[in-house]
Amino acid sequence: MSHWSEVGPDDVRLSLAQVHPSWAEAIDAGLAAVHETNPDYLPGLKFSAYLPEQGRLFAAFSMPMDSVRYILVGEGPYPRADSATGYCFMDGVVKNLWSDEEGGGLSKKVNRATSLRNFMKMLLVASGELQVDATTGNAMAAIAEKARHPGSDFIQTLAALQSNMIAQGFLLLNASLVFRADTAPVKDARAWQPFLEQLLSTLLQQRQHENTSMPSLVLWGKIAEQLRQMPVVNSYPQISAEHPYNLSFIANQTMQDFFRPMNLLVK
Fold first, then answer.
1. Residues 52-67 pLDDT 10s
2. Which residue in 31, 23, 41, 45 sits closest to 3, CA to CA?
3. What is the DSSP letter of 237?
4. What is residue 148's predicted lDDT score, i.e. its pLDDT?
5. pTM higher than 0.85, yes or no?
6. Across the strands, what pairs with 241?
7. pLDDT (tens digit, 9 = 90+) per residue, 15-63?
8. What angle do CA 72, 78, 80 make, to 5 degrees?
């Protein structure tokens, strides 16, 4: 069988140039596993428009492998070219987190990125800034006013949130690394499972070799939870929740308790 690099899209090779060197061999082996399991998949991407574009497919792997403390797995990229960044639920269109309009709460672009909106509200409930039964309207407007105030400890941008999460050791992945308008996310996620299995196996070997602690898997939604079918996943601590595009995510006590100590919305 030909090597995946001979049959896959040019953008996949371009994306590899952006990864931290510590991931290069694992990603190459993961792509080889995808190609071996489903030889038509990577060649098929050449003829199918997919997101993310512009060499961002493996953007999440910009952090060193030994810095990973948590592997956050969502569903798939946002279905908009400017939004799909290669990082789980980080919408590239979003700049400012807070509305600058009178009576506004979160910015309009955050509100459009449903998963990000609900994640932020969950963090605000976890920190005690919001009550779980009052996360809209006047309550959010009051938070936004406080956040925008000169001298506020709140972060102001999505870039700062992403930076805080990476500093905590989050590898921000999706179960499917691509979004295609003509393909069900669960189908693409199934095709990428050999890739993720190879990465998890490599990471497990690294931690065992160095005798260091295992990162925790944080699984959001039913597609991410399909990873539990892989035997290697049993070697990882795990925590799971519904996908944050569900409103119920805001009130998820497990997620609140998990994220509370991290203070991700604070500078």
1. 999 999 999 999 999 9
2. 31
3. -
4. 94
5. yes
6. 220
7. 999 899 999 999 999 999 999 999 999 999 999 999 999 999 999 999 9
8. 160
Backbone angles phi, psi at 103, to 5 degrees: 80, 5
Cis peptide before 43 (omega within 30 of 0): no
pLDDT, one tens digit per residue, over 225-236 is: 999 999 999 999
CATH classification number, 4-83+164-236, choose in 3.40.50.1820, 3.90.1150.10, 3.40.470.10, 3.40.640.10:
3.40.470.10
Nearest residue to 174 via CA among 134, 227, 249: 227
Are residues 244 and 91 in contact, defined by beta-carbon separation less than 8 angstroms?
A: no
Please compute the mean of the pLDDT values over residues 73-94 and round it to a whole number: 95
CA 108 to chain centre: 21
Q: What are phi and psi of 239, to 5 degrees?
A: -145, 140
What residue ranges do the domains of the chain occupy? 4-83+164-236
